[in-house]
Amino acid sequence: MPPAQRAKNMKFSLKDPTQFFIATDSGCILHGSRHGDRVSPRRYRKQTDSPGEVIHLDFSPFGLPCFLAGSSDGSICLYGLTQGKGPFH
User: How far is 88 from 39, CA to CA, in rounded Å?
Assistant: First the structure.
């Protein structure tokens, strides 16, 4: 059985408050819905295998379909809401 993940931060989408994003200590970001609706992608992760925990999430204040994730290793990744991998580090 894989080790359990711990939540480090949680944010609701500014565009759709029924959707939430959870930063984890395993370095990935989980995406879910309060009403059990299917979401895509269900998980976001870095393109590189750096071991840092995701400790902070923040959405674009301008309504753009993206969010930033800050990690304990000092990296910041920009994710598109429709892509599972961060295009910029």
Answer: 22
The answer to whether 50 touches 72, Cβ cutoff 8 Å, is no
CA 82 to chain centre: 11
Look at residues 88, 55, 58 and name the one whose alpha carbon lies nearest to residue 74. Answer: 55
Q: Which domain holds residue 64?
A: 7-80
Domain count, the chain: 1
Q: How far is CA 65 from the centre of its chain?
A: 13
Record the pTM: 0.84
Name the nearest CA neighbour of 82 among 50, 44, 47: 44
Query: Tens digits of per-residue pLDDT, 25-83?
Result: 988 999 999 988 899 899 998 877 666 899 999 999 998 889 999 999 898 989 998 87
